[in-house]
From TrEMBL, chain A:
It comes from the Eukaryota. It comes from Oncorhynchus mykiss. Residues 610-756 form the Coatomer gamma subunit appendage Ig-like subdomain domain. The keyword Nucleus does not apply. This is Coatomer subunit gamma. Oligomeric complex. Gene3D superfamilies: Coatomer, gamma subunit, appendage domain, Leucine-rich Repeat Variant, TATA-Binding Protein. Residues 1-20 are annotated as: Disordered.
TrEMBL record, chain B:
Residues 12-151 form the AP complex mu/sigma subunit domain. Coiled coil: none annotated. It is a peripheral membrane protein. It comes from the Eukaryota. Keywords: Cytoplasm, Cytoplasmic vesicle, ER-Golgi transport, Golgi apparatus, Membrane, Protein transport, Transport. Its main location: cytoplasm. Belongs to the adaptor complexes small subunit family. GO terms for biological process: intra-Golgi vesicle-mediated transport; intracellular protein transport; retrograde vesicle-mediated transport, Golgi to endoplasmic reticulum. This is Coatomer subunit zeta. Transmembrane segments: none annotated. GO terms for cellular component: COPI vesicle coat; Golgi membrane.
Length: 871, 177
């Protein structure tokens, strides 16, 4: 039934909005008629509608005026007009946060919630719970319990949903209603079932056993509500993930059985749950994929969309599983919903063959302007993945990307494109020049500072080494003229790199630099002056140190801190600053399909900083100096033994500290005075043991050993320690953890611990290896040739060398181009004590791999050590 | 690939919107803090409208959210949920909203009729979604619960008891003053 407004509303012209020119003050004025007697329900209703409409439009109500209107409204409870009463409930809910003293309607609402009018009861409960706080809740607890098990579905649902909202606020009270919720779960009404299940789960979700029991019960008894089924599937898959149960578990069977449910919603939920499970095999995926395939030809757009989106995810991990759907996906390319078409194409790009790439790309470009940024990012990511798979197609991709770069789009989208182009440039040297040209064109008109600086940095790095570096100068200098401070500063740094590397460009760069020295911004001027002076010296070593490799090798936050501390005590030594672990950014292609609004991670304290602090707290380890390097943890026991021990090696200038993280997995034992006894094979001397006092069941504890490195023989960098875990055992009660009074000594043999040359070297990335090579000079250069007989491929040799020396590969030389018989690997690092060390290793593939190693360092011993350890 | 398993929860709907064919808000209800201020909400609505008003394609992904929508004559209905949400659940909400209104407005789902029945719309949405939880998905039930009654019956047609009742009320109130 509908209700017409007064005639005069209709006369106000067709298509006009009767609410359009509402004035808040006028409406509040009108609200005075709430106080008139008798109440005119129709007019009051209209005014309440206006108030809610205004609130809905986002109109701001002050506390005073809201409270006044609210109190006037409470009088309307005297009318028995149904719609008016319902609108009162809505007003209460809308105003609950802006008006004061809303609790005065509690008794009216309580009356309605327990009254005879079923139409009032549900909404009254919801309004009441909206204004109730924890203390008040106890007063209405009895009514809530009754309402949850009420036979009228709307009442029961309202009570359950309101309880769910209140779990956040008053968990302890709502928890007491579990039995009622349980009873409601067996209701015949599908929505009540769903709401009861949701509430039960929320109350029990921290108790895995209870959740598991509940699942068991409901999966057996079967529910009627498709919503409840979806909820069950989600609970089941979460439980599967948490317990890491295998896929032979009954829960997995339940999810799989839901693929045959008669509701599409449930079938889709189940398929999606299976697809999202980690470590699913292709065979387990097959049934899910085949229902998704069916959905692809559904007349409902939402279902097609859901299906393609999920298939798209499958394609990232198991492209082969999706190939069966290729035909269906082809049909979706022309779908009128562009989102579906895009997803279909990107999925096909992942699963299709190289030959189909050109055709698919052409198809995307026909409608790329019509889709939203989110999907454009998906397209770019698909292209990026494709470039890695089919490097030969890079020219097609590059063209396409440059066209996309010219289109309008948000920051996320542009960043995705720029990242993608950069990764192509890095993977394919042939594409470098075209790529740089596209990027140059982009920064000519780029509103995003971050992207502009990123590209300028790249130009500075790659540009000077191209055949004609001069053509980039123009683009870079344009930035100095036109852009904001940050971009100008980046442009100056890029210019300096051109000047340092190309002698014929140097005079012109110096002229440009001179102009930059008159910039209005401090940072730009400083940089220009600095680079100007460095460049005028015309010394290769200076250039290398301050222009190419001067940035980012020392981690700034701890540098500042340390500098402050040490300046006050003793002369500051650059070598005592820990080197930043170069984060190796890998352009992997497993993006989340839509990564919007993700903030970049803030640089927290590094792992090494944390260890440094922990160690500094132990008195025995004071006076060791600053921590030079911390290794990855090494397991010294097999998995699932009585005691689990892993070791982290901390290297200091003259000492090493071994940190043993031990876990006791026996619940009837308490270990005390736990330490690891070490027997070195070389001239290493164990100075101290710091035992762990107590090691109760499943609580990890650490003990330490301090070892002095042999000083008379600096070349002894590798050593093997045989380790034994020694401790005092006290038997204890598994339940209470109460130990017996006396115990006995026992020991447990651990695996041997190796210290290798890699533990003495910290990785350092030299962005320009050649310059660094010249800087270190050939004072202590040594060269030797080795034959690696057991190695069969260059890739394998490169991998072995890197992991053996623990040094940072530079110039992307860790990637061996395909079909080559020789390769040069550049490695850089800093040796314990702060000496730079560089390794150039020429590899040739014959029968085995022949390797010619050249080592340079600022210290002769280091060179000897490296060569000795390789041999 | 994001392996974040969805935390099982009844909170499904992030927002319900109804815009007119100029993209102006007729109704908007946001159930969580995704767009806390009116300014952000309106910006989001503008974005949604610009991306959807020309195509009739039912579903889209915008600002990391799944948007299911439907247009009729000069009205645009939107239901918005997380991008991990089951799209069909959101669709069920949208369909329920549209069908309920369609019945209440006697199949006359257009801007003018809707504006003349705003209270019906407010009550219907309140019965379909409560604080982000799907409360009811059956349009019959929703229409039944909203239970808008007909025109006020003129005095001439009221029964004697009704007249007496209202007279009693009036007297009671005049006494209470």
């Amino acid at each position: 039934m509908i209700k017409k407004f007064d005639k005069k509303d209709e006369e106000s012209g067709s298509g006009s909005n009767p609410f359009q020119h509402l004035e808040k003050s006028a409406v509040l004025q009108e609200a005075r008629i709430f106080n008139e007697t008798p109440i005119n329900p129709r007019r009051c209703l209209h005014i309440l509608t206006k108030i809610i409409y205004l609130l809905n439009q986002g109109e701001h109500f002050g506390t005073m005026e809201a409270t006044e209107a609210f109190f006037a409204m409470t009088r309307l409870f005297q009318s028995n007009d149904q719609t008016l009463r319902r609108m009162c409930y809505l007003t209460i809910k809308e105003m609950a946060n802006i008006s004061e003293d809303v609790i005065i309607v509690t008794s009216s609402l309580t009356k309605d919630m327990t009254g005879k009018e079923d139409v009032y009861r549900g909404p009254a409960i919801r309004a009441l719970c909206r204004i109730t706080d924890t203390t008040m809740l106890q007063a209405i607890e009895r009514y809530m319990k009754q309402a949850i098990v009420d036979k009228v579905p709307s009442v029961s649902s309202s009570a359950l949903v309101s309880s769910l909202h209140m779990v956040k606020m008053s968990y302890d009270v709502v928890k007491r209603w579990v039995n009622e919720a349980q009873e409601a779960a067996s209701s015949d009404n599908i929505m009540v079932q769903y709401h009861a299940l949701g509430l039960l789960y929320h109350l029990r979700k921290n108790d895995r056993l209870a959740v598991s029991k509940m699942l068991n019960k409901f999966t057996k008894s079967g529910l009627k509500s498709p919503f409840a089924y979806c909820m069950l599937i989600r609970i089941a898959s979460k439980l599967l993930e948490e317990t890491e149960a295998g896929h032979d578990s009954p829960l997995f069977d339940f999810i799989e059985s839901c693929l045959r449910n008669k509701h599409e919603m449930v079938v889709y939920e189940a398929a999606s749950a299976i697809v999202h499970m980690p470590n699913c095999t292709a065979r387990e995926l097959a049934p899910a994929v085949s229902v998704l395939q069916l959905f692809c030809s559904s007349p409902k757009a939402a279902l097609r969309y859901a299906a393609v989106r999920t298939l798209n995810k499958v394609a990232m991990k198991h492209p082969s599983a999706v190939t069966a759907c290729n035909l269906d996906l082809e049909n979706l390319i022309t779908d009128s919903n562009r989102s579906i078409a895009t997803l279909a194409i990107t999925t096909l790009l992942k699963t299709g063959s190289e030959s189909s790439v050109d055709r698919l790309m052409k198809q995307i470009s026909s409608f790329v302007s019509e889709i939203s940024d989110e999907f454009k990012v998906v397209v770019v990511q698909a292209i990026s993945a494709l470039c890695q798979k089919y490097p030969r197609k890079h020219s097609v991709m590059m063209n396409f990307l440059s066209n996309m770069l010219r289109d309008d789009g948000g920051f996320e989208y542009k960043r995705a494109i720029v990242d993608c182009i950069i990764s192509i440039i890095e993977e394919n040297p042939e594409s470098k020049e075209t790529g740089l040209a596209h990027l140059c064109e982009f920064i000519e008109d780029c509103e995003h500072t971050v992207l502009a600086t990123k590209i300028l940095h790249l130009l500075g790095k790659e540009g000077p080494r191209t055949p004609s570096p001069s053509k980039y100068i123009r683009f870079i200098f344009n930035r100095v003229v036109l852009e904001s401070e940050a971009v100008r500063a980046a442009a100056v740094s890029a210019l300096a790199k051109f000047g340092a590397q190309n002698d014929d460009l140097l005079p012109s760069v110096l002229v440009l630099m001179q102009r930059c020295m008159m910039d209005s911004d401090d940072e730009v001027r400083d940089r220009a002056t600095f680079y100007m002076n460095v460049l005028q010296q015309k010394q290769k070593a200076l250039n290398a140190a301050y222009i190419f490799n001067g940035e980012n090798t020392h981690c700034a936050p701890s540098l500042n801190l340390r500098a402050l501390v040490e300046l006050t005590q003793k002369p500051f030594d650059m070598k005592s600053v820990p080197l930043a672990n170069t984060p190796i950014t890998e352009q992997k292609t497993e993006f989340a399909p839509v990564a919007t609004s993700k903030l970049p991670e803030k640089p927290g304290p590094t792992r090494q900083d944390i260890y440094q602090e922990q160690l500094a707290a132990i008195p025995e380890f004071q006076g060791l100096g600053s921590l030079f390097k911390t290794s990855e943890a090494v397991q010294l026991t097999e998995a699932e033994t009585e005691y689990v021990v892993r070791c982290v090696k901390h290297t200091f200038a003259r000492h090493m500290v071994f940190q043993f993280d031990c876990t006791n997995t026996l619940n009837d034992q308490l270990l005390q005075k736990v330490m690891v006894q070490m027997e070195p094979s070389e001239a290493y001397e164990v100075l101290h043991y710091v035992p762990a006092a107590n090691l109760p069941y499943s609580q990890p504890g650490s003990c330490y050993s301090l070892v002095r490195l042999p000083e008379d023989d600096p070349t002894a960098v590798s050593c093997t320690f045989s380790c034994t875990l020694k401790y005092l055992v006290k038997d204890c009660d598994p339940n209470t953890g109460e130990p017996d009074d006396d115990g006995y000594d026992d020991e447990y043999v651990l695996e041997d611990l190796e210290v290798t040359v890699a533990d003495h070297i910290q990785k350092v990335l030299k962005p320009n290896f050649a310059a660094a090579w010249d800087e270190v000079g050939d004072d202590f250069e040594k060269e030797e040739t080795f034959a690696l007989a057991s190695v069969r491929t260059l890739d394998e040799a490169v991998g072995n060398i890197i992991s053996f020396l623990g040094m940072q590969p530079c110039e992307r030389s860790d990637k061996v181009p395909e079909n080559k018989n020789s390769h040069i690997l550049f490695l850089a690092g800093v040796f314990r004590g702060g000496h730079d060390v560089l390794v150039r290793s020429r590899l040739a593939l014959a029968d085995g791999v022949t390797m010619q190693v050249t080592v340079r360092s600022s210290d002769e011993t280091v060179v000897d050590i490296i060569l000795a350890s390789v041999g | 690939m994001d392996t974040v398993t969805l935390e099982p929860s009844l909170y499904t709907v992030k927002a319900v919107l109804i815009l007119d064919n100029d993209g102006e808000r007729l109704y908007a209800k946001y159930y969580d803090g995704t767009y806390p201020s009116v300014k952000e909400q309106k910006a989001f609505e503008r974005n949604i409208f610009s991306k959807t008003h020309r195509t009739d394609s039912e579903i889209a992904l915008l600002e990391g959210l799944t948007v299911v929508y439907k247009s009729n004559i000069d009205l645009f209905f939107y239901v918005i949920g997380s991008s991990h949400e089951n799209e069909l659940m959101l669709m069920a909400v949208l369909n329920c909203l549209f069908d309920s209104l369609s019945q209440m407005l006697r199949r006359n789902v257009e801007r003018r009729a809707l504006l003349e029945n705003m209270e019906g719309l407010f009550l219907a949405v309140d019965e379909i979604v409560d604080g982000g939880v799907i409360l009811e998905s059956d349009p019959q039930q929703v229409v039944h619960r909203v239970a808008l009654r007909g025109e006020d019956v003129p005095y001439s047609e009221q029964t004697v008891t009704q007249v007496l009742q209202s007279a009693k009320e009036q007297i009671k109130w005049s006494l209470l003053r």
